[in-house]
Design a protein that fits this description.
- Helix 1 runs antiparallel to helix 2.
- The protein has one domain.
- It is mainly α.
- It is elongated, with a radius of gyration of 15 Å.
- The protein is built from 2 helices and no strands.
- It starts with 5 loop residues before the first helix and ends with a helix.
- About 85% of the residues lie in helices and about 0% in strands.
């Protein structure tokens, strides 16, 4: 049994897939968006991604203890 439960793995990989799809869509419509929007989207997605990583790490430590 690994550190992450099936539900946590599902959420983690689900969110990763979602961000990959969203990233692909953003790349396709990038030339239609103003530059300020692209910067904002980058910052927001980075914050959300880091939050997911930190939560996953904390959950891992909690399960070890």
């Amino acid at each position: 049994m690994g550190l992450l439960t099936k539900a946590q793995k599902g959420i983690f990989f689900g969110s990763m897939t979602w961000w990959l799809i969203l990233g692909g869509i953003i790349l396709k419509i990038k030339h239609k968006l103003p530059a300020a929007w692209i910067d904002r989207i980058k910052y927001v997605s980075a914050i959300i991604l880091w939050t997911f990583c930190i939560v996953a790490i904390i959950n891992g430590f909690i399960q070890i203890l």
